[in-house]
Amino acid sequence: MGNIPTITKNLLIINVLVFLATLVLQSGSGIDLNNIFGLHFFRASDFRVYQLVTYMFMHGGFTHLFFNMFALWMFGVVVEGVWGPRKFLFYYIACGIGAGIMQELAQFVEIYLQLNEQAPLGVGEAFVVMGKIADQLNALTTVGASGAIYAILLAFGMIFPENKIFIFPIPIPIKAKWFVMGYAALELFQAMAGTGGNVAHLAHLGGMIFGFFMIRYWQRHPSHDFSQRRGPNAFEKMKDFYERHSQSTPESPREETRTESDWDYNTRKKAEQDEVDRILDKIRKSGYDSLTREEKQRLFDQSKRQ
Length: 306
Prior knowledge:
Elements: H1 6-28, H2 33-37, E1 39-40, H3 51-54, H4 62-83, H5 85-118, H6 123-132, E2 141-142, H7 146-159, E3 164-165, E4 174-175, H8 176-193, H9 201-220, H10 234-245, H11 253-257, H12 262-286, H13 293-304
Helix pairs in contact: 1-4, 4-5, 4-7, 4-12, 5-7, 5-9, 7-8, 7-9, 8-9, 10-13
């Protein structure tokens, strides 16, 4: 736990403590925290605005909690290590809220279609009917951090698109960008097909969608980036580094003015890339704070080169 960044560590602790409190209160006094803090449908009588935040700290069972927290630990450590705590926390909470909003919209469409099958009615009329059955709609409750977790997964894929990871049950390593796109496609398919039982697939997609547009906004507005304390626009620097190493620029001014031989130049560039790849792998495994001062400077200097 000592090597886990602050926000990721606290999120893990809070989720576990809330889950234990839910078990104790439910067995001891019959109080169901999931019913109080879980996200109810917005036309249900028990809906409260604060549930858009609290629902992501509630879980339906140990398995639900375990896999969410495992993914938070696996990918959150790396993303927070690159972004810093303030930006990471804002991203996590905002994407969780976005996932909840997406789930609310999906539930509204589902209920509207069911009502419309019984008797054709407009959207305004559907609102009125839903208000009359508000107590029955309390059964529609969403819990879990999955929307925010999927957003963290997306961020990892966008920061380290070429990084290969092992994911059970896939027997071979797969690049992060393909893994993220595959997961998004699977969630979309299951959402459209209506499969997965009680799994909120559109909430998962909602977290990823909100995360994608948030990252794109930060890319286009560097002054609004949260991670200024670790150098200007850390995300842009990481992205630019990958783009430069994935493209060759033989006609650039640097290529035209260099005096070293092609062999020496390629050897030097290969050594530089290997060193930066080693540093990025260290961030992935142990977080940004595990880097030495020289390694941080090397990464910063490399990211400024054009």
